[in-house]
Amino acid sequence: MSLRLFSSFIIKNQKPCVNCVNYIKYKYTYPHDEIYDSETKLGTCSLFGEQNIVTGNIIYEDALKCRINSFSCGINGKYYYPKDDEK
Q: First-to-last CA distance in the chain?
């Protein structure tokens, strides 16, 4: 039996972002891009981001960044609200 010094443990999150009402799924430009995309595109969170003061467009923060940052939602999902079908 060997021991790895730099391995990480996977901890199952009880509050995944995809089940949250604030999660915005990534929208592909073309319909077949989702099928042939080799990378998984991350969605965004509707609670965090910034608004362009000239155009008024809102750029939402990536959901992963929100969950990593303790000042945003954090690992524990401080602003996690389950979708109605999850209750």
A: 43
